[in-house]
Design goal:
Mean pLDDT: 92
Number of helices: 8
Strand content: 5-15%
Largest sheet: 3 strands, antiparallel
Helix content: 40-55%
Radius of gyration: 15 Å
CATH class: Mainly Alpha
Structural class: mainly alpha
Low-confidence stretches: 149-158
Number of strands: 3
Shape: globular
Distance between the termini: 43 Å
Order of helices and strands: HHEHHEEHHHH
CATH topology: Lysozyme
Length: 158
């Protein structure tokens, strides 16, 4: 197992995952930059998420707290990964190929659920907590080459 990654390694893994889920690479790369700044081992605990969504599930302390962290490059929430069917150990979500697979799966589902409207999909990805999130991500997209173009509405109109 590789524990250190070059930027080129991470970008190549992001391109593979984006392509596998018919997502524009520039979108996936911008989300990664926004969420973790390309740091595969990034972790963030969300205590309010834990109290609101996890405590009622009455899980073991380890499982419950782990679901309340966002993990890896795309900062996918442990709870979201479980809802998508991930049954592995949560720290594996920090391995680029694993975290990118689950993060891109979730992002692709958000895109589909919102009819390809990028603004709405990004708001849903972010949980709607930051209304400027879509603009922040879209501003980062210009730094990366578009690799897969699908039915994505790049307008900032909600």
């Amino acid at each position: 197992m590789t524990w250190t990654y070059t930027q080129a390694d991470l970008e190549a893994a992001a391109l593979v995952a984006a392509t596998a889920h018919n997502l524009d690479y520039s979108l996936v790369a911008a989300v990664i930059e926004q969420e973790s700044n390309w740091h595969p081992w990034a972790l963030r605990y969300e205590p309010s998420f834990f109290l609101r969504y996890i405590v009622p599930l009455k899980l073991s302390p380890t499982e419950g707290h782990s679901r309340s962290f966002s993990w890896g490059l795309m900062q996918i929430m442990g709870q979201v990964a479980r809802e998508l069917g991930y049954d592995g150990d949560f720290p594996r979500l920090c391995e680029p190929s694993v975290g990118l697979e689950w993060g891109c799966l979730y992002l692709a589902r958000k895109m589909k659920a919102h009819g390809g409207n990028l603004v709405e999909a990004l708001l849903a990805w972010n949980g709607g907590a930051n209304l400027s999130y879509p603009d922040e991500v879209m501003a980062r997209m210009v730094r990366y080459p578009a690799q897969v173009i699908s039915d994505v509405d790049l307008s900032t109109q909600v």
